[in-house]
Amino acid sequence: xxxxxxxxxxxxxQFGVRGGLGTxxxxxxxxxxxxxxxxxxxxxxxxxAFLQIGMFNIIGYLTGLKAQKEQTEKNKYQxxxxxxxxxxxxxxxxxxxxxxxxxxxxxxxxxxxxxxLTASLAHExxxxxxxxxxxxxILNDELAEENKRSEFFQILVKETERVSEVVExxxxxxxxxxxxxxxxxxxxxxxxxxxxxSSRARKENIRFNIDLPNLPLVxxxxxxxxxxxxxxLILNAIQAMSEGGEIRVSGKVEFANRHPDTNQxxxxxxxxxxxxxxxxxxxxxxxALNKIFKPFYTTREQGTGxxxxxxKRIVDQHQWHIEVINQPGKGTxx
Length: 334
Fold this sequence. Notes:
The protein has helices spanning 5-37, 43-142, 147-174, 186-203, 223-240, 307-317; strands at 182-185, 206-211, 218-221, 245-258, 265-278, 325-327, 331-333.
């Protein structure tokens, strides 16, 4: 008799009320002929047999109801756990965002202080440095024949240039205004910039290879901003080539589906100017690639870490685009 309850309980736990009650009804139908075959005149015995059939259905229903409630609670717990997991993931994302925002705020505060300091120190430093440089050049010309003294003057000239470069970097970084845009010839800016830096390049045994198409390369923007980009990138290349070599400055016009003014993607293709500055230095460490455009990040002991951040800011202001091709041991291309 007890064996009839086993499938009822199994069905109830597996399928709930429907499973338990349905199985109980099926077993009742199977058990009913057995009652009829053993039908006797004893009313108490017959009543007990029908009560057993009723017990099948009651146990099937109650067990199924209990199992169904437990399954419902289990599903709720699982849903709650999933929601908690999603909330935890969102909290983690928000935590990361808050950390980034905090770092940005710290950087902004620091940059604001730098801007105020550079604005107040600019005129105080540039004029004396220019006077010192001019005086040293005059004295150096007069003492050209005295090699020992001349050597010290050369050191003084280099150190003055280095201080001037640091001041200029801070000044350029402190400037926030966007200069007015106009159309200009990129070739002229490239040639003038390379001419200005050629003397410094020769001192480091570095030569320029200017490879530009023989046609006007018209760009809309501020020529002084492009000149500042080229100066920083070329100086960066010179500093990376301690053993000399070649810096290649090339340009070409390509067609792309990005509008030159808005930098947004379109179905129509527009002519785009691509400039490249490639050095023959040692390249960069892979982990440094994500940091090179951050303010104050530098791998040089005497560097300010502002040159490439100035480049990135100017590029973003004009909605231009810059990328880095790094070949460790072979060089870097911007």
